[in-house]
Amino acid sequence: MLNNCRPxxxxxxxxxxxxxxxxxxxxxxxxxxxxSITIPKRINRSSTDILKAISSTIQxxxxxxxxxYHDDPYLIPVSNFQKRAYxxxxxxxxxxxxxxxxxxxxxxxxxxxxxPIEKFYPKTVYDENCQLDENxxxxxxxxxxxxxxxxxxxxxxQKGIEISSETQQALLELVCYYNSVDDIEEDWIxxxxxxxxxxxxxxxxxxxxxxxxxxxxxxxxxxxxAEHYSIIIQGMAKYNQFDEAYNLYKxxxxxxFVLSINAxxxxxxxxxxxxxGADHKWLHIQEILKQMNNLGVPMNxxxxxxxxxxxxxxxxxxxxxxxxxxxxxxAKQFNIEPCLASYYYLLQxxxxxxKMKSTILIDILNQLEGKSxxxxxxxxxxxxxxxxxxxxxxxxxxxxxxxxxxxxxxxNNYNLIGDSYKESVYYRNFFSILCKNESIxxxxxxxxxxxxxxxxxxxxxxxxxxKSINTAAATELYSKIWxxxxxxxxxxxxxxxxxxxxxxxxxxxxxxxxxxxxxxGKLAGTIFDSIEERKEAGKIKSPWSGSVLGNLINVCLFGDxxxxxxxxxxxxxxxxxxxxxxxxxxxxxxxxxxxxxxxYFNELLKCLEYSLEIGYVELDDLISKTITKMSLTPxxxxxxxxxxxxxxxxxxxxxxxxxxx
Amino acid sequence: xxxxxxxxxxxxxRSSCLIFVRSKHVQAARYKRxxxxxxxxxxxxxxxxxxxxxxxxxxxxxxxxxxxxLRPAETAIDDExxxxxxxxxxxxxxxxxxxxxxxxxxxxxxxxTVQKISVTKMYFLIGYTEEILSYWLQCPIKLELQTVEDRTxxxxxxx
Lengths: 661, 159
Description:
Keywords (chain B): Mitochondrion, Ribonucleoprotein, Ribosomal protein, Transit peptide
Oligomer: heterodimer
Shape of chain A: elongated
Radius of gyration of chain A: 37 Å
CATH architecture of chain B: 2-Layer Sandwich
Protein name (chain A): Small ribosomal subunit protein mS39
Largest interface: A-B, 29 and 26 residues
Number of domains of chain B: 1
Strand content of chain A: under 5%
Order of helices and strands of chain B: HHEHEHEEHEE
Number of strands of chain A: 0
Structural class of chain B: alpha/beta
Keywords (chain A): Mitochondrion, Repeat, Ribonucleoprotein, Ribosomal protein, RNA-binding, rRNA-binding, Transit peptide, Translation regulation
Family (chain B): Belongs to the universal ribosomal protein uS3 family.
Largest sheet of chain A: none
Largest sheet of chain B: 4 strands, mixed
CATH topology of chain B: GMP Synthetase, Chain A, domain 3
Helix content of chain A: 55-70%
CATH class of chain B: Alpha Beta
CATH superfamily of chain B: K homology (KH) domain
Subcellular location (chain B): Mitochondrion
Distance between the termini of chain B: 26 Å
Strand content of chain B: 15-25%
C-alpha cells in the first residue's frame, strides 16, 4: 500500500517524504534479524574526482619523456639544451599565434563555444574610445591585468569619474603585489619554468619601482588608512625596498594604526637592511612583536618565516640558533606548524657552519615523512634543493638523501621542486652523493630510472659517474655510458674523455672472455672515430692528447682491433705537431709485442717510424726482439734496415745473434 | 548499393553482370593507375571507400552524424578548415591523411610529418597550430604527430 502511494506522497512537501522514509525504515528493521545496515553518508565529489582517481592508478613511466614533448623519436629531446629549446619553441609558437589573434581581433570575435569561453576571445584593448566605468576597472583587477588596470584607472581619472575607495584599495593591492608591472602570464608555463631562477638571483636587491604607479596611487590618497599603509608596506618589503617600508611603518605607528598581520610580517623583514648587527636586528623584531602583542594581532606562519629570514642574515651563529628555536617554540604555542620555507631557513641557520655538523635535517624529515605538502610560502620551493645540497655537502649521507627523495616523490610533493634550475641542482647533488658513496649497482639503478627523461647529468656529474664506473671496474657499462655521452652532446668535454679512456685502459683484465674483449676494442674504435669526426667538423676545438690516444691504442690492442690501433698510430705520426704529448712507453711496447706475436709487419713498421721520430728509449730491445722473434722476408728486413739505419741494424743483429748463441 | 540490390532482386540472372558493369564506372575516391605504374600510394589511399572499417579507418571521428548528433554540417566544414589549415601551415611536410578525432570538447589532430625541418621549428609549428586553431574553434586542440625520415616511408604500394 505504501509503495502505491509513494509517488503521490513524493510530490507533496519535503516533510512528508521524510516521514515516509522514517516509516519505511521502521518497518524493515525487524526483518533484518536485529543486524542493522548502516548506510554510509554520501560523499560529495567534485567533477574531476573520477579523473584524479584514474590518474592515481598510473605511475611514472621511466622510459617516457615528459608529456609536454611529442612522443616521437625525432621529437624527444635528449640533452638539456634540447629540452629547453623544444619546450620554449613550442611556447613561442603559441605566442605568435596569440600575437596574430591580438593583431586581428576583429576576425576572432565569433562565438562558437557554448557556454562561451572568455579565454578564447581576443584581449580587450582599453583606450579613450571605450565606454569605461568602475566595473571595467573591477574586472581588470579581478583578472590581475596590471597594465590594463593602470590604463583604465588613468582613463577614468581623465574623464573625471570617481571610483569607490574599495576599488582603489583593490587596485593598490594589485599594483603593490606585482610592483606595477605585468608578471609573466600564467599561460606561459615553460617561460616561467625556465626563468624563475634568474628572478631569484636578484634576491635582496631593491627592485621596487620608486617612480612606479603604486607610489603614485598611494600619494593620491589624501588620508591613507591602516589598510593602505599595510598594502604599501607589504609591497615594498616584497621587492626589497626596506628603508621606505620601515619609514612608512613608523609613520603608521605614530598615527596609531592597527596594521594587517602581513604588514607586521613585512616590517619584521625590513630588519635585514634597516638594522645592523645581530643584537639590533633581534631588538627590532622584538619591538614589532611587542607592538603586535599590544594591539592584539596574533602571529601567523609568515611571521615565523619572516623572523627566520632575518635570523639567517645574522652572523653570530650561536645566538641565532637559540633565537630560531625560541621562535619555533613560540609558534608552536599558537598552533602554527612550520612550513617548508621555515625548514629551509632553519637549514640555513643551523648548517652554515662547516665544522659543527648539525643533524637538524633528520629531525625535519621526521616531521615531514608521509605528509602531502602544499605550498604556503613562496620560499617553500627552495626546501628540497637545499635539503639535497645539505645531504651532499653537510651530512654526506645517501640514506638521508634517499629519505628526502622519497618525501619529494610522495603524493603531489613534486610540485614543490620549484623550477628547472632548482630541479637540476637537486639531481646534481643527488647523483654526486650516489657517485661518491654508493655502489655502482645502486648508482645505475637510479641512473636508469632518472636519466635522461627526468634529469640529464651535467658534464661534471658525467665525469663522476665515469669515475665510479672506473673504480668499480664495471667494463660492461662503458658502451652505455659512451652512447649517453654522445647523446648528451658531452663528447667535447676533455675531462670526461680523459677519465673514460684512462679508466678503460686500466680495467683490461686478461681473464675477460673473447667477445667482451672484442666489444671493448670496437668501442675504443668508435670513441676514436666519433671524436675525430667532431674535431673535423670543428665541434671540438681542443687538440688530441697523446695519453688519450695511447689509452685508446691499449684498448684496441686488447680487443684485437689492430686496424684502429694502427690508424691511431698513423694519426699520431702524421699530426705530431697538433697532438699534445705522446703515448706511454708501455703502449709502444705493447704495440710492438702485439705485432710480433700476430706477425703484423706493416703495422709494426708504422709504429717503428713513429717511435723513431719521437725517440723512445727502449727501442733497441724492441727492434732486436722484432728481428729475432719474427720470421722476416728479405724485403721486410731491407725495409727495417732502411728505417733504422744499416750500421745500427748490423749492430743489433749481432747483438741478437750473440743472445741466441 | 541499394539500387544494385534492388535490381538484383528484380533480375536475378543478370545481377552479377550488372554489378560488374556498375562498379566498373565507380571512380570516386579511387586513384587512377599511372602509365608507368610508379604513382606512390599510402596505406590510406590504397583502400577504396568500401574498405573503411574493414582494412582502414575514418579520417574524421565524431558523433555528429549519429541520431541527435550536434552540428553535423558545421563539423564537416570545420574539419575541412582544419585540413586545409594544417596542409598550408605545415607546408610540404604532411605525408599522410589528416585524422581528426573529436572527444567531448577536445579535438585531436593526427598526422605523419616528414623530418624536413629542424625539431625546434617543428615544435614552433606545433605550438602555433594548436593555439591558433583553439582560438578559431574555441576548444582545446591537440596535435598528435609522428615523423618519418622521408615520404617513401609511408608508401604502401605503387600503381
